[in-house]
Amino acid sequence: MHLSWMLRCWLIFLAASTRLAPLPAQAPVKQPHFVNIAPRSKIAYVTKNGFDGHMYFPQTMCGGVAIFDFDNDGKMDIFFTNGAHFPDLTKTDSSYYNRLYRNRGDGAFQDVTEKAGLTGAKLGFSFGVAIGDYDNDGYEDVFIANAGANTLYHNNGDGTFTDVTAQAGLAKPAGLLSVGAAWFDYDNDGLLDLLVTNYTYWTPATDIHCSMGSDPVYCSPRRYPNVSSSLYRNLGNGKFQQVTLPSGIGSALGKGMGISIADFNGDGWQDVFVSNDTERNFLFINKGDSTFEEKGVQMGVAYDDDGNANSSMGSDASDYDNDGRVDIFYNNLKSEGWGLLQNQGDSFGYVSNSTGILKLSPGFSGWSAGFTDYNNDGWQDIFSANGHFDYPGRDTTQHDTLFENQQGHRFVDVSEAMGKDFMHRGYQRGAAFGDLNNDGFPDIVVTSLNEPPRILINSADNGNHWLVLNLIGTYSARDAIGASVRLTTQSGRVLYNRVSVSVGLMSSSDKRVHFGLGGESSIKSIQITWPRGTIQELHDIKADQILTVREPQNEKHGEAGK
Q1: What is the pLDDT of residue 460?
Q2: DSSP string, 475-543
Q3: Is 405 helix (H, G, I), strand (E, B) or coil?
Q4: pLDDT tens-place string over residues 125-178
Q5: Suppose 275 and one of 12, 315, 351, 431 were both cysteines; which one would form an S-S bond, judging by CB atoms 3.0 to 4.6 Å apart?
C-alpha cells in the first residue's frame, strides 16, 4: 500500500513536470513572399487612363493583363492593354500603346510590341484582353475589348500578329463599352467561341458630369444604361456569328465586368458567371442545345446575403474546398464585403461570413482577383488587386490582399507577410496569374493606374511540391479550356483543378493547370475529363515537373476543327 501511494505521487509529479516544462521549439513553417522584378527590365509601359483634370467615366477601368506563351518557347510572356487621350479617345503617342513583353528566361522581359504588331495605335481606349487559340493552329491569339471597335489579332506563328477583326465578323455597335472577354467552347464543337462583357453605351459627348459638393467625382454607374453581354459562335475558317439573342445571353441586362467559365452543375457543358457593377450578378446555365438560361437568382449568386446587388468587379471560379464542385469568388468596392459562393450541387451558398471573407474585405475596393495556391499546400488562396477610384487629392490608394485558405474552412489575411513589393499602395486594376519562371510556384502581374506594372515573383522557398499540367486538346479545342482534372496523391488526398484562362477583371492567366502538393512528392493517379467528354487517366506521376498531356484520339474522334 505504501509503494502504491509513493508510485501515485511520483506519477503526479511527472505529469506536473511535463505540463510545466517548456515544449521543444518547432521550426516555423516557411512562408513564400513576392518580389517585384519589373525594374530588372526596360518596361516602358505605364497604365495611362488619360486623366488630365477632367473626369471621364471610363478612366477608372484601365490596365488589362495577359500571361501567355505567344511564341511557344515554353516561357510565359506578358501583355498589357492601355488607355487613351480624352476626349478624342486616341493613343496620341507611344505612351498609350498596348505592350507585349517576351520572357527572356533570365528574369528579364524584352519589349517586342512593335515587331509583333500589337501597339494598338489606332484602337483608342482599351480595357480587357482574352487569350485563346481560336483556329486551333497551335498559337495563342489575342482579343482586346475596347471603348471603340473590339479587335481580334491572329497569331501568325512567326512572332507577329495580324488584325483580322473585320473578316472575323466581330463588329459591335458604336459607343458600346466592352470591358472583358473570355474564350470557351459553349457548344462542344471543338472550336473556341467568344463571350464579351459590355458595360454601357458611352461616348465623350454623352459623358455625365458629377460632383460631391464642389469636388468633381466619377458618376455612379447607375447613371448609365444597362446592356447585355455579347456571344459570338466560332464557325471555323476564321469566321464568327453573333448569337447573343438566340443563345439567351442577351436576355439579361447589366454592367458586365468579370467572367468566370466553368461547368458549375456537372452536366458536361460550360456555364458562365458574370459579375456586374451595381447590378445583380448573372449565372448563365448552358442547356446543351446552344442556348443558356440565366439562373443567378435561383442558384443563389445574384445578390449578397442581405439581398443587395453590389459593385461586383473581378471574379474567379475554382474548387476552394476540394469537394469536386467549382465555387465562385467576386470582389466589390469598399464597405460592401466580398462574395465567396460555395457550390452545393443544385445551388450556391453565400459563405463569406463563415469563412472569414466578410470580416477581412470591407476595407478594400477590389478589381481583378483570382484563386491561386501561392504556397503550394493544395488549397486555393484568394488574391485581390485593390484601390479605390482615382480621386485626385484624396488618399484612396490601397495595397493588394492575399487571403490564405485554411484547409477549405476559413481564410486569414497574410498580405503583410508577402513583402514590401506586394504591399505597394496604389490604384491597382488588372492582375493575372502564371508561373513566369517555371519553378512550380504561381507568380502575379499587377497594373496600377498611372504607374508601371509589378511583376511579382514567388520566392518559392517553403519546400512544398507541385505539378503543372499543359493540356493540349485534339478532339476538343486545342487550348482545352474547361477540361477538369482530379488528382490523387499517394496518401489518398484528392485535389481538383481545371483549365481556366478568364480570371479576375480585364485579364487572362496562364492556361496551364497548377497543383500544389504540400509535402507529397508523388502522385497516384490523375483523371482528366476533356471538354468534349473524353476521360483520360494517368498513373504513378512524379511531382515537381511540367507535364504535357495530349488528348487521346481514336477512330471515332478526329481532330478539332479549324
Answers
A1: 96
A2: SS-TT-TT-EEEEEETT--EEEEE---B-BSS-B---SEEEEEET--EEEEEEEE-TTS-EEEEEEEES
A3: strand
A4: 999 999 999 999 999 999 999 999 999 999 999 999 999 999 999 999 999 999
A5: 315
Tell which residue, 130, 104, 376, 97, has the closest CA to residue 232.
130
The size of the chain, in residues, is 562
33 pLDDT above the threshold of 70: yes
pLDDT of res. 409: 97
Predicted TM-score (pTM) above 0.85: yes
End-to-end CA distance of the chain: 92
Q: Are strands 465-472 and 546-550 parallel, antiparallel or unpaired?
A: parallel
Burial of 10 (0-12, 13-18, 19+ CB in 10 A): exposed
Over residues 399-456, the pLDDT tens digits come to 999 999 999 999 999 999 999 999 999 999 999 999 999 999 999 999 999 999 999 9
d(CA 25, CA 385): 37
Identity of the residue numbered 161: F
What pLDDT digit, counting tens, does each position of 318-358 carry?
999 999 999 999 999 998 999 999 999 999 999 999 999 99
Note if the bond before 173 is cis, omega within 30 degrees. no
- Cα angle 368, 369, 370 (rounded to 5 degrees) comes to 145
* Single-letter residue type at 539: H
Pairing of strands 210-212, 239-242: unpaired
* Average pLDDT of the segment spanning 230-258: 98
Q: Which three cell numbers stand for residue 257?
A: 465586368
From the list 144, 156, 190, the residue with the least C-alpha distance to 72 is: 156
Residue 523 · residue 490 · CB < 8 Å: yes
Q: Is 169 exposed, middle or buried (0-12, 13-18, 19+ CB in 10 A)?
A: middle
Pairing status of strand 494-498 against strand 454-458: unpaired
DSSP string, 450-490: TS--EEEEE---S--EEEEEEEE-SSS-TT-TT-EEEEEET
> CA 273 to CA 113: how far, in whole Å?
32
- Which residues, 6 or more positions from 257, have their beta carbon under 8 angstroms from its beta carbon? 179, 180, 197, 199, 274, 275, 276, 277, 312, 313, 314, 315, 505
> 355 or 13, which is more confident?
355
Give the tens place of pLDDT for each residue, 532-559: 999 999 999 999 999 999 999 865 555 5
Assess contact for 140 and 131: CB atoms under 8 A: yes
Q: Do residues 492 and 515 lie in contact, with contact meaning Cβ atoms separated by under 8 Å?
A: no
Q: Which three cell numbers stand for residue 20?
A: 510545466
H or E element: which one contains 16?
helix 2-20
Spatial strand order of the sheet with 327-330 comes to 315-318, 327-330, 339-343, 348-350
Nearest CA-CA partner of 134 in 115, 117, 153, 148: 153
Three-state secondary-structure class, residue 274: strand
